[in-house]
Amino acid sequence: MNPLNHVAIIMDGNGRWGLKYKNSRNAGHKEGLKTVEKIINETIKNRIKFLTLYAFSTENWKRPKKEINYLFNLLENFLNNRLEDINKQNIRIKILGYKKFSSKLNKLLNLAEKKTSKNSKLQINLALNYGSKTELINAFKKIYKKKGKINEKNLEKNLQTYNIPDPDLLIRTGNTKRLSNFLLWQLAYAEIFFEKKLWPAFTEKEYKKIIKEFRSIKRNFGKI
Question: I need a labelling partner for 189 at 20 to 30 A (CA). Which of 8, 64, 122, 165 fits?
């Protein structure tokens, strides 16, 4: 049975679900947040230590401003209302990406990281304004500035995921089969599952099924 330490998820399909069932992309984002909470609880039940959620990419700034503002307001409200509970659950929050948001949201994100920094049951890495190509370029710049050697060890030391184990499993919902500039280095040996269901419709049942299938896969890592 394969050990499962880190699950990464591309939560795709909120907008499409919202348009299909509520005639509103924003309604899909709101519903998707409920799925996030369900998956967090199921992750804890399965004793998985790391969960990385792709919430907002560097490319997502191309979306309509109203939708972007709604997303960030949704995140602000979530942190304001749920941070105490998250802390009591012994969950750690870490932000991957670049905090170029409103001063209010930046302050909330910093507070979430600081307040939960010593928690150990589950670490949730929230990828916000994150793009893997930008992360890699910045890592190389840091090495160059330090006049260091270009090798795997030095590169990994300068990634935002330093001291976080690489994902064992990537799940992408929404019936789309691509990585979308997400953890390109870190996903080198992850098992990848593409799920047809849109994110708001993704349930604990599907999540448990994928986990069960992952645990039974023969993982060779280049060997026979």
Answer: 122
At 130, the amino acid letter reads Y
Catalytic residue among 12, 14, 125, 168: 12
Distance CA(133)–CA(137), nearest Å, equals 6
Do residues 13 and 173 touch, judged by C-beta distance below 8 A? yes
CA distances from 155 to 74, 137, 148, 167 (A): 34, 10, 10, 17
Query: Can you give the pTM of this predicted structure?
Result: 0.96
Domain parsing of the chain, residue ranges: 6-130+169-216
CB neighbours of residue 178 within 10 Å: 10
CB 184 within 8 A of CB 159: no
Q: Would you list the DSSP string of 138-192? A: HHHHHHHHTT---SHHHHHHTSTTTTSPPPSEEEE-SS----TTSSTTTTTT-EE
Residues 6+ apart with CB under 8 A from 152: none
Calpha distance 202→174 (Å, rounded): 9
Amino acid (one-letter) located at 146: K
For this structure, is 80 an active site residue? no
Catalytic residue among 5, 46, 60, 119: 60
CATH for the 6-130+169-216 domain, from 3.40.50.720, 3.30.200.20, 3.40.1180.10, 3.30.420.40: 3.40.1180.10
Q: Is 46 a catalytic residue?
A: no
